[in-house]
Specification:
Chain lengths: 113, 144
């Protein structure tokens, strides 16, 4: 599934659209940076409630094309700017991490069938 | 001991933990520029970023060094912080001495050193309480 299709479906507040043609391979959720560094696979969406600048550093490091901030958490100015600079998609959704992951699970599963 | 073919040292500011990643980003860029295989770059980047976090969070700043030899990459991180009293404890997954404020930012998960170990072929920690800590991580370069 393409990144832009996911953005279109979630109806989020879009801070940066990123590279819409990127294929999304899966989803990882977590707020511990070292956990994401250890476990995330390239091409995954990262769902988190962390909003500081290091989120973009981890996304760049692990080549994660998209960050979803759950529970309406607004990114810090520094994080928003860095995502624009690196062209990493970053969106804010009102749903909790649980709810947005459930949606993503349906989307990615339907897509695989 | 084989000769180095590339060597660079990066200083790490200990006061600015919102902007961690400056040195490790430079290391990643240097490895890319030198045409190191991408799987090794990924491993080296994880090592560099985790080591940089440790230097900032626990060491109060320091240096990181990248050395590229014909058959291995070595990343060295050094600080003059409080040191680690019990290294085997520090290597345990989930053990951390980070403050609550730092943990709230998602640091201090107690996975930094284990992540470094998992991504290196050889890792050594030298630490002296009150003097500082030095971490050496080596990744072998296999040539066809």
């Amino acid at each position: 599934m393409k990144l832009h299709e996911i953005i279109n479906t979630l109806e989020p507040d879009v801070i940066c659209k990123g590279d819409g043609d990127r294929d999304i391979t899966g989803v990882i959720v977590g707020d511990l940076l070292s956990f994401i560094i250890g476990e995330a696979q390239e091409g995954e969406i990262w769902v988190t409630i962390q909003i500081h600048l290091n989120v973009s550093a981890v996304a760049v490091l692990k080549e994660l094309p998209m960050i979803i901030l759950a529970s309406g958490r607004e990114p810090s100015k520094e994080l928003a700017e860095k995502c624009l600079e690196e062209n990493i998609a970053i969106i804010v959704v009102e749903e909790s991490a649980y709810e947005v992951c459930a949606k993503l699970h349906r989307l990615l599963n339907d897509d695989a069938e | 001991m084989s000769a180095e073919i590339y060597e660079e040292e990066y200083s790490i500011d200990g006061k600015e933990f919102v902007a961690i990643g400056v040195a490790s980003t430079k290391i990643k860029a240097a490895l890319k520029m030198l045409g190191i295989p991408s799987d090794l770059i990924r491993r080296a980047s994880v090592i560099a970023y985790e080591a940089e976090m440790n230097v900032v969070i626990h060491g109060g700043g320091g240096i990181m060094k990248l050395e590229i030899h014909p058959d291995f990459i070595e990343i060295i991180a050094r600080d003059e912080g409080p040191g680690i009293p019990d290294i085997s404890k520090a290597m345990e997954e989930g053990f951390s001495t980070a403050t609550d404020k730092i943990r709230e930012m998602g640091f201090g998960a107690g996975m930094g050193l284990p992540n470094i170990k998992r991504n290196s072929d050889n890792m050594e920690i030298k630490s002296e309480v009150g003097k500082g800590t030095e971490v050496h991580a080596v990744i072998g370069i296999k040539r066809e």
